[in-house]
Amino acid sequence: MSEDTPSLRQALAVPPGPVSLSGFDPGAKPLEPGDRHAHDDRLQDLQERLWAESTQGGRRRVLLVLQGMDTAGKGGVVKHAVGELGPIGVQYSAFKKPTEEELAHDFLWRIRKRLPEPGMIGVFDRSHYEDVLVVRVHDLVPQSEWEPRYDAINAFEQELVDDGTTIVKVFLNVSYDVQRERLLRRLRRPDKHWKFNPGDVDERALWDEYRVAYSAVLERCSTAAAPWYVVPADHKKYRNWAVAELLRETLVELAPAYPQPSIDIDAMRERLQPPH
Ligand code: AMP
Ligand code: MG
Q1: What is the number of the ligand closest to the CA of 97?
Q2: Which atom of ligand 1 has the smallest separation from the CA of 128?
Q3: What is d(CA 180, CA 201) in angstroms, rounded to the nearest whole number?
Q4: Candidates 103, 114, 134: which one to mutate for ligand 1, based on the most atoms within 8 Å of Cβ?
């Protein structure tokens, strides 16, 4: 990326200070693809170099955290932005309602088990943040238990960063009206009925409570080590491009490089000569 190309990460990062979600427009399209110079660093190539680096002892890896209300498009982002990467080198994890076993442990227990190995891009479809979102909104544990989790999350993420992980946290910001349209569309299409969860309508009724809970997350857990990005999610194409671009910018900055081979290339070539 040239020095003067504005970065999407700068445009979408949550600024420090008090956060109110009303300040973020779900229909915005900052730095659309057309505004930017195309360049050669394809996501796939960057990822391959990150992987190559790890085969020679490199510790670096990336963790993409996806959060958002139902229909915000976590699935679409995984299909398009992450799909662009191809399956090799990507480790996908969806976090659902915790099992009995998971509930018997600290909330980060199941998360730690799914952290990406060096060279990999880990994708969290929902994450440890549910433990201060759905859990807070539904009083699944008392406030005395969820309140300390913001600090616990920041300490946890700092630990990951210190160990070579670059964390990209994305809140897919869909509007109330567009969520309604998308839920109605699911009802109109028999091939989408499987996606329709009656519980999503219950969550929608708690929209304002979720806005408050998301604002707290963005305010308290957008750190220098692991910032949050708010991606406008009312336009699907923009949303998918933006997440891919955030990943790409992140990898460009990491600048992974193919390791120098330790093989004796001439000797190998010699041994591969046809038989005399
Ligand atoms: P989905 O991602 O739409 O398939 O739904 C997964 C469901 O699991 C959502 O309703 C989440 O709110 C719920 N979920 C994920 N993590 C937790 C958690 N830590 N505690 C309670 N519910 C959770
Ligand atoms: Mg859902």
Answers
A1: 1
A2: 19
A3: 9
A4: 134
Rounded distance from Cα 224 to ligand 1 centre (Å): 27
Tokens of 53: 């680096």
In this prediction the pTM is 0.94
Domain ranges of the chain: 8-271
Q: Looking at ligand 1, which residue's alpha carbon is closest to its atom 20?
A: 97
Tell whether the torsion through CA atoms of 31, 34, 37 and 39 is positive or negative.
positive
State both tokens at 144. 């005395």
Instruction: Provide the CATH topology of domain 8-271.
Output: Rossmann fold (3.40.50)
pLDDT tens-place values along the chain, 276 residues long: 445 567 999 999 999 899 999 999 999 999 988 766 555 678 999 999 999 999 999 999 999 999 999 999 999 999 998 888 878 889 999 999 999 999 999 999 999 999 999 999 999 999 999 999 999 999 999 999 999 999 999 999 999 999 999 999 999 999 999 999 999 999 999 998 988 889 999 999 999 999 999 999 999 999 999 999 999 999 999 999 999 999 999 999 999 999 887 789 999 999 999 887
Quick one: which ligand is closest to 133's CA? 1
The candidate with the shortest Cα–Cα distance to 68, out of 192, 220, 240, is 240
